[in-house]
Specification:
The structure holds 2 protein chains of 2 kinds.
Chain A: H1 16-27, H2 46-52, H3 54-70, H4 74-99, H5 108-123, H6 129-151, H7 156-176, E1 186-187, H8 199-223, H9 225-235, H10 237-242, H11 247-273, E2 275-276, H12 283-296, H13 301-317, H14 325-339
Antiparallel strand pairs in A: 1-2
Helix pairs in contact in A: 3-8, 4-8, 4-11, 4-12, 4-13, 5-6, 5-7, 5-11, 6-11, 8-9, 8-11, 9-11, 12-13
Chain B: E1 3-14, E2 17-28, E3 32-37, H1 43-50, E4 58-63, E5 66-67, H2 73-79, E6 81-84, H3 96-103, H4 110-123, H5 125-129, H6 140-153, E7 158-162, H7 170-185, E8 189-194, H8 197-203, E9 206-211, E10 214-220, H9 221-226, H10 228-235
Parallel strand pairs in B: 3-8, 3-9, 6-7, 7-8
Antiparallel strand pairs in B: 1-2, 1-4, 4-5, 9-10
Classes of the chains: A mainly alpha, B alpha/beta.
């Protein structure tokens, strides 16, 4: 601020300008200082309004449950199960990347840890799959502690590099150890039981239930007290800390939650595939899961589910295009990101002041500089 | 007068640079104390150290009779020591209302948060008008008000404001200072870090002038305003 008009005045006898400021200051609280006027728009575009409807979630679940009655071909069941598992991975990564803003480039590592833990325990030791689940959770948490412990104290760029390395280390380790079957992997993994149904359909319904619960859980986590803390950390870590949020603990919670989701998705994957091998968990997986989160809309559970469905099913739907399908897939992704940079269904429609409505609410002077 | 904050011989080093070299100050209950000084004098380092973001190499910080030297920021917030960082640091993508709710993160009682938010809206009606707007679309002055309002939700006993007048027009500075005065009158101790000595000494009852990491001048606001050294350096006579 300019001191020019103040020259020559003493504190006891302030210049007329200062006195004027003093007097006006008290009288005009709450009337000056423009800012943009509220735009008054609600709910964004028609797409968001349709998918934003509370019934939409139930509709999706109904479709998922009813699918075997509509089309029970082995192919349809297979790609649908794949898509569901992919949804679980995406909502898990969404906790880490979307809610908390921690860039994890090696998420497939937890997927692999889950699949291998469950696969090895059930084949080598002959355990039923359900009994392996507690150990999968433990293994995923240990993995999360090992990577998150030292790196979450750093800012997220470093986390991205470390997780990228971690993803590869897990895959290469699985490739070289004997008890993981080396390059051959683990095969003959049992299923959950067939409940008197065709076995792939039985697995499909188990997957529907587990993934449905996972989606619900992640969405609820995002709305709770911890979920809010994650968002604050994502928005501004220092400010969050100044507001009394234990940032390290909160980031840790996000990372370990993501690890557990990834591990459990690994169990479903192992059961569904009945055989797993190291190439199933390469970097492409981590990248595709991240792509589903970004494409759908970071931090938005419905968005991420839609993103995961698109990423996992689009290559199948484009099968007619033969060798061109991955090219078309890539072009479509770029098109989506151009027209909906916040994702297909963003967590919140960005409040953009429309052109022409950028009027200041009051003509009085505002601050000189920000 | 009971003492809220007592800082004794505080030493802080950034690598080989000595930022604070034995700084001492006290803040009494329901009192506004101003910390003045030029860029690099150590003002922000002082509040940063008190609020646990910067580690002290020596000296003690005592708050409400407890030793809180190098305590964790979240524990200090629970104790009622709230720091409004320099540059406002509001959450620009969250709404005004959400920004206020964050302030109550350490408050378990949801009703208490709602009551305090209502109080802040009373104190700062501008925020009530803009409650659904994203923080980033507010003007600089409104953002500062929001930052102060957010801190008030936590129920501070000691509020530390780091340069609230930064980048604001004179009229806005006067409003922010009015808010600070009201907060003090309501019984919260305020440690006000300012370069704008004229504005700060108008609301503060006492002040400290910092230079190169030590207090060079201290005294009542009136005395500081009359001190030729302060007048020359900060008030521009």
């Amino acid at each position: 601020m300019s001191d020019e008009p103040l020259r020559g005045s003493t504190p006891e006898d302030p210049s007329g300008f200062v006195r004027a400021v003093d007097e006006r200051g008290a009288a005009t609280v709450g009337t000056v200082g423009g800012g943009l006027t509220p735009t008054g728009r609600k709910g964004g575009n028609p797409v968001s309004r349709v998918v934003g409807h509370p019934l939409f979630g139930w509709l999706v679940i109904a479709v998922a449950v009813a699918l075997p009655f509509v089309n029970s071909s082995a192919y349809a069941i297979r790609i649908s199960t794949d898509a569901l598992i992919f949804i679980m991975l995406a909502v898990g990564l969404n906790v880490v990347v979307g809610y908390c803003g921690l860039l994890d480039l090696g998420y497939a590592a937890f997927f692999a840890i889950g699949a291998y833990t469950s696969g090895v325990l059930s084949t080598t030791f002959g355990w039923p799959i359900l009994a392996t689940i507690p150990f999968v959770v433990i293994a995923a948490v240990i993995g999360g502690l090992l990577i998150g412990g030292p790196t979450l104290r750093l800012r997220s760029d470093y986390l991205a590099i470390v997780t990228l390395g971690f993803g590869e280390i897990i895959r290469i380790t699985a490739n070289n150890l004997d008890f993981t079957g080396g390059p051959n992997g683990v095969f003959g993994i049992p299923d959950f039981g067939d409940f008197g149904l065709r076995s792939d359909i039985a697995t499909y319904w188990v997957v529907v239930v587990v993934v449905g619960l996972a989606v619900l859980a992640s969405s609820r986590l995002g709305r709770g007290r911890l979920g809010r803390a994650w968002r604050f950390v994502r928005e501004d870590e220092d400010a969050a800390e100044a507001m009394g949020i234990h940032t390290y603990k909160v980031k840790f919670a996000a990372y370990v939650t993501g690890a557990i989701f990834g591990g459990l998705a690994g169990v479903l994957f192992a059961v569904h595939q009945t055989a797993i091998s190291p190439p199933s968990f390469n970097f492409l997986w981590s990248a595709l899961i991240l792509m589903a989160v970004v494409l759908g809309g970071m931090g938005s559970t419905p968005g991420v589910v839609i993103g995961a469905i698109i990423i996992s099913l689009l290559p199948e739907l484009l099968r007619g295009a033969e060798n061109w399908r991955y090219l078309i897939f890539g072009v479509l992704l770029i098109v989506v990101m151009i027209f909906r940079p916040q994702g297909i269904w963003p967590h919140r429609v960005e409040e953009k002041p429309d052109r022409g409505r950028r009027r200041r609410s009051s003509p009085e002077p505002e601050e000189v500089a920000r | 007068m009971s003492t809220v904050l007592q800082v004794t011989d505080l030493v802080v080093n950034y690598g080989k640079v000595e930022a604070l070299r034995g700084l001492s100050l006290t803040v009494g209950a329901a009192e506004t104390v101003s910390l003045l000084g030029n860029n690099g004098a150590g003002k922000s380092t002082t509040v940063g150290t008190i609020s646990g973001i910067v580690r002290a190499a020596g000296g003690t910080v005592t708050a409400f009779g407890q030793d809180v030297t190098n305590a964790k920021p979240w524990d200090l917030v629970e104790m009622g020591i709230i720091h409004v960082p320099e540059g406002r640091r509001i959450f620009s993508r969250l709404t005004v209302h959400e920004n206020l709710q964050i302030g109550g993160y350490t408050v378990r009682d949801g009703k208490a948060i709602d009551t305090r938010i209502a109080e802040v809206y009373d104190l700062l009606p501008r925020l009530a008008e803009r409650r659904g707007q994203q923080g980033g679309t507010l003007s600089g002055g409104e953002q500062q008000m929001l930052a102060i309002g957010r801190a008030m939700i936590a129920g501070p006993k000691l509020l530390m404001l780091d340069e609230p007048s930064m980048g604001l027009a004179p009229l806005m500075v006067a409003q922010v200072m009015d808010v600070v005065r009201t907060i003090t009158e309501q019984g919260t101790a305020v440690l006000l870090i300012e370069q704008n000595a004229r504005a700060a000494l108008k609301v503060a009852s006492r002040g400290y002038v910092l230079d190169s990491g030590v207090v060079t001048i201290e005294g009542s606001a009136d005395r500081l305003r009359a001190d030729p050294r302060v007048v020359e350096a900060y008030l521009g006579a």
